[in-house]
Specification:
This protein is of the alpha+beta class and about 625 residues long. The chain folds into five domains: about 120 residues, GAF domain (Beta-Lactamase, 2-Layer Sandwich); about 140 residues, GAF domain (Beta-Lactamase, 2-Layer Sandwich), CATH 3.30.450.40; about 170 residues, Rossmann fold (3-Layer(aba) Sandwich), CATH 3.40.50.300; about 80 residues, Helicase, Ruva Protein, domain 3, CATH 1.10.8; about 45 residues. The chain is about 50% helix and about 20% strand. The protein contains 22 helices and 22 strands. The strands form six sheets. Strands 8-7-6-11-10-9 form a six-stranded antiparallel β-sheet, sandwiched between helices. A five-stranded antiparallel β-sheet has the order 2-1-5-4-3, sandwiched between helices. It has a five-stranded parallel β-sheet with strand order 13-16-19-12-20. Strand 6 and strand 7 form a beta hairpin. Helix 8 packs antiparallel against helix 10. The chain is elongated and about 155 Å long. It starts with a helix and ends in a 10-residue tail after the last helix.
């Protein structure tokens, strides 16, 4: 029988079941003309009054138990009790002035059906409202989690918000350490370090991660709880709800556990909500882990970059250079680095970058000497798709890529005058416009320039813009050539040799006293780069435990000697002889082996050239036809 309009109206108007009972019970009691009417719930052998109207008598517990067991409706004296269809744990209990008659029993049975339907409507609406509220709260929580990029903070926030949302005393997130077959629970209150480590087969959590299914324990099912964990935590578990944490690709990450519902026990709705929370938690955990890994790699790269940009040496020039670098690193001042080829201009620029607040941002190096006039603007400022014939895609320039970090312009002295004008404009305005574009793009790149040329002379000869020179020349670092660094040469040699021997998986050989002296006397026209290359060859080609002068000489020159032009260890007659030998060789090579042509270039008769070569101990095989 469909419910009367009064019940339907009550169901539609009631905010919850308690309000429904408060409205409908007086109405039903009046319709049935009974003294009192109550709704009673059975809770594991105990009786609880859910709502009542005028009830003053003690409940007839034996009659209630009988009706609960067999269902339907029953009377005893002035009591009439009926089940509520669809709600197995609810009974309608009425008390009359006189013993109830069959007509009254039929009326109560009809009302119980109507009440059942009305209650179902209210409960369904209440569940929907509660679910909507919980989902909204979960979405708010998920948004908060996804903004948290530190793992410890994220785990703590997850525990705090989930306990608050689901009214539990504690929460823990267990992450699965598969390699060690352990579960790592955090936060773990009462445990030193806030981290609990247990075997991945332990208790309910172990069951959940291996089965992939949620688990729930109430106050009457305590056997599955592992009390060893309680003992570690100094805590007593009464009720428990645990669901799996599954990542985006179906990978089991761990488990999400709630302990001790503050009122009653965990419900199906709680389980549904925790499963929803766990899905968001898994995404947040993966994102945070990925972010932390990226940060770790970035920091590691910055640390490696800083290690790779060390200035080896203790000479006064290097000590002064270190001091200046420390002072200018955390400024945005333009720096101009001067020095011969191979003195370490890029190493110094990296040192400035990695000691600055920009260390975690890009370091971009550009060799201006390698860029043609047509490529320069596109390389530095970028271009739009279709800007020129080969511009098939839009491309960011080096200024954009280095924004927030450092842009190193090497060999700035080789840049064309038109390129210098465009560079000056960018340095002044901090804005670039891509080739073929019109949109101004802000750039916050710090510029460090370097050259092996004398810019002041280039300015005087109008080959370098004076305004750009002064714009770049805020701080000037003049790098000393290696030949002027004294004992730093041996220190650098040992450093490079150890570095390359580590890669070659061998013990670094030691330099003999003669080899050290030879290193110090060499003029090092290639500076640190030349020394580094020499040490790399020794590391991979030398088989001895010591590096002697002969091996250095062999490596330095195929003839076994240093270039006589730069060697300062020979007496004048010997140096003169070596110069003549080398000079004659070069002329013969230039003449492609023609002795006649070589003699002409030397201003000698061919027979005199042969005589001179014999005097110098050179082979005199005639290579002419």
């Amino acid at each position: 029988m469909p419910p009367k309009p009064a019940f339907l109206q009550a169901a539609l108007n009631s905010r919850d079941v308690a309000e429904l009972w408060a409205i409908t019970l007086p109405f039903v009691a009046s319709e049935m003309n009974c003294q009192s009417l109550a709704v009673v719930r059975s809770d594991k052998g105990e009786w609880a009054i859910v709502s009542q109207a005028g009830l003053k008598k003690p409940l007839p517990t034996e009659l209630l138990a009988e009706v609960l067991d067999r269902g339907g409706i029953a009377t005893s004296g002035q009591w009439l009790v009926a089940t509520v269809p669809g709600h197995a744990d609810l009974l309608l209990v009425s008390f009359f002035d006189n013993a109830p008659n069959p007509k009254t029993a039929t009326l109560l049975e009809r009302f119980s059906e109507e009440i059942s339907l009305a209650q179902s409507l209210v409960e369904e609406r209440e569940r929907d409202r509660s679910r909507i509220q919980r989902l909204k709260a979960i979405l708010d929580i998920a948004a908060q989690w996804n903004r948290t990029l530190k793992m410890e903070e994220l785990l703590r926030t997850m525990a705090e918000t989930s306990t608050r949302l689901l009214n539990a005393e504690r929460a823990s997130i267990f992450l699965w350490d598969r390699a060690n077959k352990m579960l790592v629970g955090r936060p773990a209150l009462g445990v030193e370090g806030g981290e609990l480590r247990i075997a991945d087969t332990t208790g309910i959590v172990g069951q959940v991660i291996h089965s992939g299914l949620p688990a729930r324990v109430d106050r009457h099912e305590q056997g599955e709880i592992d009390r060893r964990v309680d003992n570690k935590l100094g805590f007593h578990t009464r009720t428990l709800l645990c669901v799996p944490l599954v990542g985006g690709k179906g990978k089991m990450l761990g488990a999400f556990e709630l302990i001790n519902k503050r009122e009653g026990e965990f419900t199906d709705a709680d389980e549904e909500a925790l499963i929803e929370l766990a899905s968001h938690a898994a995404i947040a955990l993966e994102n945070t882990h990925e972010h932390e890994q990226l940060v770790k790699v970035r920091d590691q790269a910055a640390d490696e970059g800083q290690q790779g940009s060390q200035l080896i040496g203790n000479c006064s020039a290097i000590e002064a250079l270190r001091s200046t670098i420390r002072r200018v690193s955390n400024t945005d001042l333009a720096v101009l680095i001067l020095g011969e080829n191979g003195t370490g201009k890029e190493v110094v620029s990296k040192r400035i970058h990695y000691l600055s607040a920009r260390r975690n941002e890009p370091f971009i190096a550009v060799n201006c000497a390698a860029l043609t006039e047509t490529l320069l603007e596109s390389e530095l400022f970028g271009h739009e798709k279709g800007a020129f014939t080969d511009a098939h895609t839009t491309r960011q320039g080096k200024f954009e890529l280095a924004s927030g970090g450092t842009l190193f312009l090497d060999e700035i002295g080789d840049m064309s005058l038109s390129g210098q004008a465009k560079l000056l404009r960018v340095l002044e305005e901090k804005v670039v416009v891509r080739v073929g574009g019109s949109l101004p793009i802000h750039t916050d790149a710090r510029v460090i320039a370097a050259t092996n040329q004398k810019l002041a002379e280039l300015v005087r000869s109008r080959k370098f813009r004076e305004d750009l020179y002064f714009r770049l020349n805020v701080v000037t670092l003049d790098l000393p050539p290696l030949r002027d660094r004294g004992d730093d040469i041996v220190m650098l040699a040992e450093h490079f040799l150890a570095e390359f021997c580590l890669k070659a998986r061998r013990r670094p050989p030691e330099f003999t006293a003669a080899a050290r002296k030879r290193l110090l006397k060499h003029n090092w026209p290639g500076n640190v780069r030349e020394l580094r290359n020499l040490m790399e060859r020794i590391a991979y080609l030398s088989q001895e435990d010591k590096v002697d002068i002969d091996e250095l000489a062999f490596i330095l020159s195929p003839s076994g000697d240093d270039n006589p032009i730069f060697s300062l260890e020979l007496p004048l007659p010997d140096a003169t002889k070596r110069f003549q030998i080398e000079y004659i060789k070069k002329q013969i090579e230039r003449s492609r082996g023609s002795m006649t042509e070589a003699a002409e270039r030397l201003g000698l008769h061919r027979s005199n050239l042969y005589r001179k070569m014999k005097q110098l101990g050179m082979p005199t095989t005639d290579q002419d036809d």
